[in-house]
Amino acid sequence: MSPQNNYYVSRRQQNYSRNQNTTRFQSAVKLGPVAHTVLVVLMIIVLGLIYVTQATRTTGYDYEAQKIDSQIAEYNEQKSELEVEKARLTALETVKNSSVAKEMTTPSSTQYVQE
Amino acid sequence: MKPELIHGSRSRILAGAILAIAAVFVIRLFYLQVIQHGHYVDLAQTEQVKRERLPAKRGEIYALNDTTPVKMVLNETIYTVFVDPVVIIESGESEVIAKALKEIAGGNVRDGFETQLTKKDSRYQIIATRVTRTQAEKIKAKEFRGIGFQAVAQRVYPEGQLAAQVLGFVNAEGVGNYGLEGFMNEELAGVDGRLETVTDISDVPLTVGDRNIRVPAQNGKNIVMTIDRNVQSKVEQALAAGLKRSRATDASAVVMDPMTGRVIAMANLPTYNPADYYKVTDAALFNNATISAPYEPGSDVKTYTMATAIDKGVARASDTYYNTDSIKVDDRTIGNAVLGHTGVISFQTALTWSLNTGFVTLAQRLGDGKQITRTARDTMYEYFHDRLGLGQLTGVELANEQKGIIISPNQPDGNAVRYSNMSFGQGLDATVMQVSAGFSSIINGGNFYQPTIIDGYITDEGSYQKAPLKPPVRKSVVKATTSSEIKEMTHIARSMFPGIDKPGYYIGGKTGTSQVIRNGVYADDETIATYLGYGGSDRDHPEYVIMVSIHGDHRVLGGSTDAMPIFTDISNWMLGYLKIQPKGR
Description:
The complex is a heterodimer of chains A (about 120) and B (about 575).
Chain A: E1 8-10, H1 11-14, E2 23-25, H2 33-55, H3 57-89, H4 92-96, H5 99-102
Antiparallel strand pairs in A: 1-2
Chain B: H1 10-35, H2 37-48, E1 49-54, E2 61-65, E3 68-83, H3 85-91, H4 94-105, H5 113-117, E4 125-131, H6 133-141, E5 147-156, H7 164-167, E6 169-170, E7 176-177, H8 179-183, H9 185-189, E8 193-198, E9 213-215, E10 222-228, H10 229-246, E11 250-256, E12 263-269, H11 289-292, H12 302-311, E13 320-323, E14 326-329, E15 332-335, E16 343-346, H13 347-352, H14 356-365, H15 374-387, H16 416-422, H17 432-443, E17 454-458, E18 464-466, H18 480-494, E19 506-518, E20 521-536, E21 542-551, H19 559-577
Parallel strand pairs in B: 2-10
Antiparallel strand pairs in B: 1-8, 2-3, 3-4, 3-5, 6-7, 8-9, 10-17, 11-12, 11-21, 13-16, 14-15, 17-18, 19-20, 20-21
Helix pairs in contact in B: 4-6, 10-19, 12-14, 12-18
């Protein structure tokens, strides 16, 4: 490695502690203030985007919920229609005029068995 | 040395200008986003938030089929079809649309709807009403432009006219009128809900923001009536047959359980179909005459007078009086309708032959034995009005119940002549329901039950919650011994008509024939015929009380000839329907 790009600063020169066999690698590449600002702004934008996508994620489920609600409403309407139809078919007049009822006769006498 | 702009240099001026412009933007943004924050939020809310009413489903009404609730009134969604003629003209499909509508909803389209499809000066035309959901889906599937649908909730009456006046109807504004629909309108209507939410461009509700409000609708209560649809049908049939037989114009009947006050059937003829209420031209058809039309009950009330006398200990069935077929009260002479039973006769005979003189005599015996004194009138008022409920609302859960009139002895009109008339059922106004309820308390041992038409409720989950039986409103209105004696007396009175009842049962009753008042005087050519009775396996177990009333314009009808056959028809049928075992022969 070129001594111009990488140089070692012995910590021994900086610290007075003993038995400190550590070194620090310091890059010669430095970012200026503009680059720092741009990076910070970019990071904030990314974080903001992440926040917006997470916060509105639930909104996506609303469309599913709406579809399901519509289906439920549809089934309820079908159920109501069937109930109305059932009530019409089991109405007294319908039953009385049915072919089964027409075959019935009034009993001529009724006997009761003593318990 | 740190470089800096020279004071007064153009660069410095430019920097200052840019700073000033930026400051303007910042201040403006601050003003818009901070100071005016609330205003723009409100604007956004107005634009984005959709406010919708969540309609509550109107409660259904059930009757009983023996003990099982069956639906009498339901809800159905129908559609009104409307068009935008401008869009249809642009699409050039008016003929295709007309053909499709005729095929799918032919019976529901309006006359001349084809011309409405091409009305250039209109953006909204209704072309079909009462279209079913299936028909609407078929039209929608054709994907015609310019056609819209409006959903409308409608009541459905699968039993047609059955119990029409008991049910009432719901008008176009969704408000119940008459009957149970009118009386219980609030409970049946429920409470609408509310939805306020941000929506997207397609009106899909979105869960953004913290101002969303969703208050679910509270559906109306589903009510189960005490009315048994089989008994109701039989009663309406019997009334119709009676009307035909007697050539009468109107008839009413009530069937109730004397031991609980439950109303099992309540019928009036002529009637109407609640689904077609808007076609009715005579509003009198909507009235339930059994509760809304007080009249002079006539001789049915003789049972009340007899019960009062027995209860007060002034007379028994076997006690006698001297009948001359007329009796004087103050300056009035009251006569019997049936003549010939003169001499010493018992009060049983007076009841059997419905002799007015007997009951005026009882009213006198409640006083000093010769006159209908204030004491006698006070006693009669106490029994008739306070204990037995004549002239008072019964409280049955139906709209438009009328009180009727009983003149108190405190009033100048509450004199001896009036009370002599009251002793045989004239000089007072009461409804069929009041007379039935009072009679029920006389024959059930002395407990007055409030008539009720509500048996219970069906929950939203579909389970049946029976309402608890209510205790009597008044106890001991007559003594138990009085009750037994009245039952015996009315049973003997009915025995005058042998062979009409099924053998082995205990049936009793009283005829009533009351004159109609026209222009303030009693008319000679028109009467109301009634029959009030009960039936069961034996004297101690009355299972039902039936009261029948029949009337014809300018017709003189008789209680025994015109009302009693209807009672007998219903009574004999009830014995079989309720599976009441005969106890004796």
